[in-house]
Amino acid sequence: METSGKVIKCRAAVAWVPRKPLSIEEVEVAPPKAHEVRVKILTTGICRTDDHALEGIMGGIEFPVILGHEAAGIVESVGEGVTDLKPGDKVIPLCIPQCRKCSSCLHPKTNCCFKTHLKEPQNLMPDKTSRFTCKGTQVHHFLWTSTFSEYTVVPDDAIVKIDADVPLDKACLFGCGFSTGYGAAINTAKVEPGSTCAVFGLGGVGLSVVIGCKAAGATRIIGIDINKDKFEKAKQCGATECISPQDYDRPIQEVLIGMTGGEGVAYSFECIGNTDVMKAALEACHIGYGTSVIIGGAPTGAEISFSPMLLFTGRTWKGSIFGGWKSKDCVPKLVSDYMAKKFNLEGLVTHTLPFDKINEGFELLHSGKSIRCILMF
Ligand code: PAD
Ligand code: ZN
Predict the structure, then answer these.
(1) Does residue 166 belong to any structural domain of this protein?
(2) Rounded to two decimals, what is the model's pTM?
(3) For residue 60, is pLDDT > 90?
């Protein structure tokens, strides 16, 4: 049946209010407007950022909302003015857009497009309207992706075509978790061969940092998590040793400094969203040249107090969004690198569930049993 130009009725997981299970509902998805693309989502992962939004700790999220931002799908139809995509293309929606026009997009040092949700709210489409309706109520978008829906509409700056051969359960990981962690090691920290790294938090993002550190030639990669069940996967991804802060009666940064002969690590990564851990990760860095990267999303309004001596004495503190990748340019290349076997993503997907079991997927994340749970439509 030809659907182009028509409203599509399909399944979506609607978050009506914060901190409650999602409801599988029939929603109406309007056709794409100019410079928009309507996509049939085939697979979507559950990332902790979706959970932060559902928990209400991520600012600027209005309910009801359709969450989800780590997905792969097929273009169903395109709006006027879309030149680089056509129906049938295999695509990844991009939670960090690349407009290729703003001062950030034109600058080689950043991927923080001015259209990012940190600059411009993405709870509605760029024209401040929604393409989703459920039971007569307008439903909000999330990061311009809203992939917990069988069909979604995204701006053409926030979607890219990928190699049609890539398996869909892995393709979705390039929409967030893998690209974020791998890029934080490669692009943001610029990990050097022979170095020692510490990765705090061994979820989908942290394990992808481990994969990036290994690819960059780090010789020691210390994984840190309070859940020891994560250690096996971390070692499979390249961690050389794993420790739990709960096994020590002194702060974890002191443990790491002790483990490195009193020196500290060259690179540390916070992949949790905990401000105390962010500070510990900085303190665990080597004087003079240690670099610490914040990847975890802290609750909106959170602040950190720390000794300026830590930076005065030469450490560097950085943040990384979507691994520093300019999304439209780099995601297809990352997918090609995966197809060329430059890295292995086997360790990241622990569960695959039908889309209707999305709340079970969130429970697996909460209980610490999953790394990435992939939902199939
Ligand atoms: P996850 O929940 O799968 O992994 C977090 C891990 O941290 C789990 O294994 C926990 O057991 C562990 N953990 C929790 N508390 C502690 C602690 N105090 N010490 C040590 N370990 C601990 O999450 P994820 O990997 O999907 O996401 C991690 C964070 O990264 C989260 O805050 C998310 O919002 C953020 C994120 N940032 C970006 C970005 O572009 N910067 C992209 C995607 C996700
Ligand atoms: Zn994410």
Answers:
(1) yes
(2) 0.97
(3) no
